Amino acid sequence: MRVDHGENRSPHHEPGAYRPMETLLILVLALSFDALLGEPRRLHPLVGFGRYAGWVEGGIRIADFSAPTMRALGAAALTAAILPWTAFAWLAGEWSESSAWVRILFSAFVLYLAIGWRSLLDHARRVAAPLRRHDADAARRSLSMIVSRDTAGLSEEEIASAATESALENGNDAIFAAIFWFLVAGIPGVVLYRLSNTLDAMWGYKNARYVNFGWAAARLDDVLNWIPARLTAFSYACCGAMDSALQCWRAQGAHWKSPNAGPVMAAGAGALRVRLGGAATYHGSLQQRPLLGCGDAASAQSIEGACALINRALALWTATVALGACALWLWGAV
């Protein structure tokens, strides 16, 4: 969090820096926008970016080459897709320096677009609600909107497990990592993170098409999520059953296929005292995944528990930012 201790801007004020209370206000405004409005249903910038990224891929990936060449082309595509928009975010931030309120509102709006708090909870609860009625068909349809695994034929426990896993993992990807990068690097950091995460979702598959071309996108997302994922895992532990959360994180987190999703989901499952993981089918191929968590089998209640855990963790993050902002403000006022 970059801080200007003076009440008035000085000639040495760093462009784009936020005062402590500005940081807190931007975060609260962004979360309020998301809670009230949810994700934009039309003209979402990430949808437009997805089309742009597809155009970049089509222009750079003109043929299949050797693995090293495809990795180099993927890195070039990643740079061409992300760099212009990150630079634009920085320039827009410079433009907004003319007014404190313009800067605050602009920053809050961009952060709002980068997070998906309400959308995450809404999608998870659309799975939980029919599960409570034992309407597995409706639950499977809702689940298919948020996971990449095959949902046909899943039992109620498997549906609940998949939805709980998705909620816990996306708590980091869609909320806490975006907030982390805002605190570290302002709006350019938010844009860099959100676009890299989107490209990982588009190009990060380990199939014949993307195993090499998407390598750079997957690795960048791993790097940008490394610290936020562990902060998220610790937050889940603080806001749930801490002993089992930390134990599951230590024992199970490193065995998952993703270096960041593993700690997040293991800690979250332990915090909820629920069993997740296990075998799942992706695109017709059965994958034997490690078990996560401990305690009861997944159910509609565990999905609701994951949503509540995310809310408590978000309250913890917001309170921590508020305490830090107040402490820095008081320190600067002395």
UniProtKB/TrEMBL annotation:
Membrane-topology descriptor: Multi-pass membrane protein
Top-level taxon of the source organism: Bacteria
Subcellular location: Cell membrane
GO molecular function terms noted in the UniProt entry: ABC-type vitamin B12 transporter activity; threonine-phosphate decarboxylase activity
Keyword tRNA-binding attributed: no
UniProt keywords, alphabetically: Cell membrane, Cobalamin biosynthesis, Membrane, Transmembrane, Transmembrane helix
A Pfam match: CobD_Cbib
GO BP of this protein: cobalamin biosynthetic process
Signal sequence annotation: none
Pathway: Cofactor biosynthesis; adenosylcobalamin biosynthesis
A GO CC annotation given for this chain: plasma membrane
Transmembrane segments: 72-93, 100-120, 174-193, 314-332
PANTHER family (alphabetical): COBALAMIN BIOSYNTHESIS PROTEIN CBIB (PTHR34308:SF1)
Chain's role: Converts cobyric acid to cobinamide by the addition of aminopropanol on the F carboxylic group.
Family: Belongs to the CobD/CbiB family.
Protein's name according to its UniProt entry: Cobalamin biosynthesis protein CobD
Source species: Hahella chejuensis (strain KCTC 2396)
